[in-house]
Amino acid sequence: MTDIQSYRGPDGEGLWRSPDGRCVLGHRRLAILDLSERGHQPMLDPEAGLSITYNGEIYNFVELRDRLRGLGHSFRSETDTEVLLRAYAQWGSDCLAELNGMFAFAIWDARRGVLFCARDRFGEKPFLYADAGGAFAFASEAKALAILRDVDTEIDEGVLAAYAESGHTQIDASERTLLRGVRQLLPAHAMEVCISDDRTEIAQTWCYWSVDVEGRRGYGKDDGKRAAGELLELMTDSVRLRLRSDVPVGSCLSGGLDSSAVVCLVRLLEPGADLRTFTGRFPDDALDEGHYAAMVVDACQTHAFEVAPTPERFAAEAARVYWHADFPIGGTSQFAQWCVFQLASENGVTVLLDGQGSDEQLGGYGNQITQEFLKQLWHQGERRAWFRERAGAARSNPMLFSWPRLLLARPELSTVRDWLRRHTGRSQVDRGNVFRADWLAAARLALPPPSPEEQVGDESALSRLLWTLSFRSMLSGLLRYGDRLSMAHSREVRLPFCDHRIAEFAFGLPPELLLGDGEVKRVLRGAIRGLVPEAIVTRPKQGFIPPQHSWLVGPLRDWIVEIADDPGPVGPLLNRERIANLAGADAETRRREVTGLWEMVNLLCWSRFSLARMQQSRRVSAWEATADARGDGDRRAGETPEATFE
């Protein structure tokens, strides 16, 4: 299990088995803080009867260590791992409230016979688990669990149906995953597993933190200038904490609002540092953001590195990308991420800051968020505000409120909408069309249920949507891609906007400070004005978009035909005739159906390059695995001793 994830930690490895045989912990180390052997894991505290395996960073470990010293604790390393272990010894599960970081960890508490597991508030670091023939198994990636014979790697058809209905953002919407036997600990959740001589069971799972979805201040109830100043203070401190490292730190830089703000804050905090930035470029594409990234490079005097992904490279490396991704990705922008992380690896930068998390909390996705914003104002009885903000949104995006669009959005006119699509040359293939209609109808019955936060009333419509985007859909997917694809290259990504203090602040702001007067992320623009080049502060929202459509229509055609010919384990669920027709269609049809074409390619690549390999993995039982950990034929047992603090 640790070998198959070795790229996540090339700097050390360890296995530990409790004296009573109840618990085995494994670890692969990516050394970031205290590079000595004192940082080795699993880490033990024999006096307290505690052992830990941990992935991530506790950014405020320095402040926590000082508090714990004041409470009588002593430390022998400079690691955040030891601080986390002592924090649990001091406060038990309440230690989670003290942590500012990204983490997934398991602590074996021998005195209680309990394995305490937790995941950070946003879910930046993964925690996957399974029932492995009566044993409780956990790992950072699904492929590590798939090795175990008793873990069911068949498709969870309800989760796949949610994906078919609403896309990749639904893969992370519940504790269920695309594999029937693999679950995930949700963001901001903790779990206790009781382990005794005769039973192993999950005793409890709970959410230890959440923003207040119904606590947003009313329209016009705050001052924009004050709010912008407070946000800048929070962002600055968040970046400061995330610069703590004993290895080189750089930053991804797209040229967008968020990554530009992060880079400018790094330069503000470390004016003399050798700041290295990494950018994905598409020089021949109209949406290339290289000129915006260049503005930041010039303003901050960074040492800039660029990479230009190509369709040929995508075809050549797709098998590796999907194997590391575990599950389907969002688009070829994730391949561009992959290339950027490899570029950082080639240039010796281990830790990268990036800008994910801003759009979901601060209102960066215009159309959908605007609709919910207006819905909330209407249901709150804010009629004057509704008319004012609707007029501002219409100036910004006139098509959003065109009468044909509004009429055709009504459910009762769905047949007219379909007729218009057929007779106006619009796309006829969406994500659901890739599947057999009878299978999809049956699988919908097993869709995961919504979370309570997604069921609050329309008086909180905006926060309801932003919560879902932040903790169950869009950001959850982006964090999964970022973790898997960066760790594939042994890089660590830190996200200053994913600081719980920023989330608590953002979900309390009046709605017009997020997207009032037709402008998205208003409070952020106000916060960074004068820090970031003005052309970036005032630019409209644009996602990181590679020339995906032109790749699929042209250079990747033959490769797509080959992929479609062997769909892998997902094949029985698909409309094979439609897939074959779409893969082999002429250029005009492929151009019209390019969205459906990508959905097909994404699904088939996951099926062939990830799911098939996991289902074919060498299988051992959990009990055979623990025999290895005892040292019965395991070459590693005892090679590298665990870190022990007496």
The number of helical segments is 27
CATH class label of the domain at 224-362 and 457-537? Alpha Beta
Approximate helicity band: 40-55%
The number of distinct β-strands equals: 17
What is the 3D shape? globular
- The CATH homologous superfamily name of the domain at 224-362 and 457-537 equals HUPs
User: Separation of termini?
Assistant: 29 Å
Q: What percentage of the residues does DSSP assign to strands (E)? A: 5-15%
Radius of gyration: 25 Å
CATH architecture grouping of the domain at 224-362 and 457-537: 3-Layer(aba) Sandwich
Unreliable residue stretches? 632-641
Write down the CATH topology of the domain at 224-362 and 457-537: Rossmann fold
Largest sheet: 7 strands, mixed
What can be said about this structure in brief?
This protein is of the alpha/beta class and 646 residues long. The protein is built from 27 helices and 17 strands. Strand 13, helix 7 and strand 14 form a beta-alpha-beta unit.
Task: Tag the structure with descriptive keywords.
646 residues, alpha/beta, Glutamine Phosphoribosylpyrophosphate, subunit 1, domain 1, Rossmann fold, globular
Structure report:
The protein is an alpha/beta fold. Among the domains are: 208 residues, Aminohydrolase, N-terminal nucleophile (Ntn) domain (Glutamine Phosphoribosylpyrophosphate, subunit 1, domain 1); 220 residues, Rossmann fold (3-Layer(aba) Sandwich). The chain is 42% helix and 14% strand. It has 27 helices and 17 strands. A seven-stranded mixed β-sheet has the order 11-10-6-5-4-3-17, with helices on one face. It has a five-stranded parallel β-sheet with strand order 14-13-12-15-16, sandwiched between helices. The chain has a three-stranded antiparallel β-sheet with strand order 8-7-9. Strand 1 and strand 2 form a beta hairpin. Helix 5 packs across helix 6. It is globular. About 2% of the residues have low confidence.
